[in-house]
Amino acid sequence: MKKAICPGSFDPITNGHLDIIERASKVFNELIVGVVVNPAKKCLFSVDERVAQIKNVVKDLPNVRVEKFSGLLVNLMNKEDARVIVKGLRSVSDFEYEFQMAAMNNKLDPSKETVFMMTKTEYCYISSTSVKQVAMLGGSIKGLVPEEIIPEIIRKFNSK
Ligand code: PNS
């Protein structure tokens, strides 16, 4: 298969996200990680910080590119000439949200398809939100996010 987009907030990227990106990069010829600029959502990291973190952790995946985007995902897909959205699914509760988003994207542009990959069981309890909560309360986030970004997360909370 050709080009796909893996979109998200990635605030921050977790080992669950990275696993989906690595696996999707083996299925598609080219994978774009789309990092959303969402002014309505208060993020810990700026979009440029998130893009830099992801670029750093995917640097050894030659067919993966990281782009920030604002506005509709389908617009980015049309700009990039991509038809497929790749998302990870952790649980039944993810399914409801993801099902709705997949249907909305397909309504906005029926040429777009969403493909789901099941998160590996060892990562199914990890979310960016829970990682931030653990880090904020001084717990260990080792094994939850890529090693390279652990100091950045700790630094961010220490500076708050
Ligand atoms: O990691 P997240 O926060 O669950 O990612 C959500 C994301 C970025 C995939 C979603 O919010 C999105 O696609 N935003 C762009 C706006 C859009 O296209 N909305 C219509 C589909 S509901």
In words, what does this structure look like?
The protein has 160 residues and is an alpha/beta fold. It has a single domain, classed as Rossmann fold (3-Layer(aba) Sandwich), CATH 3.40.50.620. 42% of the residues lie in helices and 19% in strands. It is built from six helices and five strands; from the N terminus they run E-H-E-H-E-H-E-H-E-H-H. It has helices at residues 15-27, 47-57, 73-80, 92-108, 128-136, 150-158, and strands at residues 3-8, 30-36, 64-69, 84-89, 113-118. Strands 3-2-1-4-5 form a five-stranded parallel sheet, sandwiched between helices. The radius of gyration is 15 Å and the shape is globular. The termini are far apart. The mean pLDDT is 96. Bound molecules: 4'-phosphopantetheine. 4'-phosphopantetheine is lined by residues 7-9, 36, 72-73, 101, 104-105. Residues 7-9, 36, 72-73, 101, 104-105 line the site of 4'-phosphopantetheine.
